[in-house]
Amino acid sequence: MTIRIFLPLLVCIVLFACNNESPTASVQDSLSPATAVQTKDFKKLDTALYFAGLWVNEQYVNDVTHTRRPGNVEVPENACIIMPVKTLKETSLILGFHEGQEVVILKNGNKYEIWDKPVLNKLQDIELISETRLKLGFDTFIKLKSGDLSAEKNPYNIVDILLFAGKYRDEHGATVEFSTDGKVKGIPGINAYEAWLDYATSEAVTDQMSMGATPETMKDYAFRFDKDRLMIFHLKCRSMGQDSICMEYAIGDRYLTLTREK
């Protein structure tokens, strides 16, 4: 009698144990392949980047802000990068302000990475420090502009933002304003401006900028900051070539003296 009761009870215990283990094993088996596919396919992941915008090497930002002489500042090898609004979108890692390497941004798990355009080699890890600072290797970058910059005509107007943007007074007390997006108010006949960024391949005699009624009709000028004053000078040709192209420029007469409003 005791044996008859014990055997059915033993069978029930074994069946219960088997039924208890099989769902767990089944869940694990179903999750493992999905996880593997997810990791393998991160190169195809199309997702938004919350840190999109213009990022500039912190060393350059500090040097230009301190000296206010962009033409005399040493430009870092990794100068700046525009982070696109989504992964997989092509962008450029700007090298020394006169060369660019085509790259894409990928999200690999919880990390973000910079890869070459064929997406064969990882170039840099992106370490996000805060909303306005990130690291690429040993270099720290500062965010100067946010959002989608793909439609901007001049997305790299870095010196405009660091030095020029703001309100000034001319010698007669009239207000002159330089915007962060290349517009000018208060100078007759001048509506657009752009401070030079790349001096490595130019024959600039000093820090230079361009101004004009439109971006297409701008002329070159020299400029110099002295405390709260901005002085803008005409350029004159010192040496003319045979084909009527100026071979050497020099600083000419002063065009404007502006005092920054506090």
How would you summarize what this structure contains?
The protein has 262 residues and is of the alpha+beta class. It has helices at 2-40, 58-67, 158-164; strands spanning 53-57, 78-83, 90-95, 99-108, 111-116, 122-128, 133-136, 139-146, 166-169, 175-178, 183-187, 190-195, 208-212, 219-226, 229-240, 246-260. The strands form two sheets. Strands 1-2-3-4-5-6-7-8 form an eight-stranded antiparallel barrel. An eight-stranded antiparallel barrel has the order 9-10-11-12-13-14-15-16.
Task: Give short descriptive properties of this protein.
262 residues, alpha+beta, 8-stranded antiparallel beta barrel, 8-stranded antiparallel β-barrel, 3 helices, 42% strand, disordered N terminus, DUF306 domain-containing protein, signal
Strand content: 35-45%
> Structural class, from helix and strand content?
alpha+beta
Q: What portion of residues is helical? A: 10-25%
- Total strand count, please? 16
Strand numbers in spatial order across the main sheet? 1-2-3-4-5-6-7-8
Organism: Terrimonas ginsenosidimutans
Keywords: Signal
Protein name: DUF306 domain-containing protein
Account of the protein in words:
With 262 residues, this protein is an alpha+beta fold. It is built from 3 helices and 16 strands. Strands 1-2-3-4-5-6-7-8 form an 8-stranded antiparallel barrel. Strand 5 and strand 6 (122-128) form a beta hairpin. The N and C termini lie far apart (102 Å). This is DUF306 domain-containing protein. Residues 1-17 form the signal peptide. It comes from Terrimonas ginsenosidimutans. Keywords: Signal.
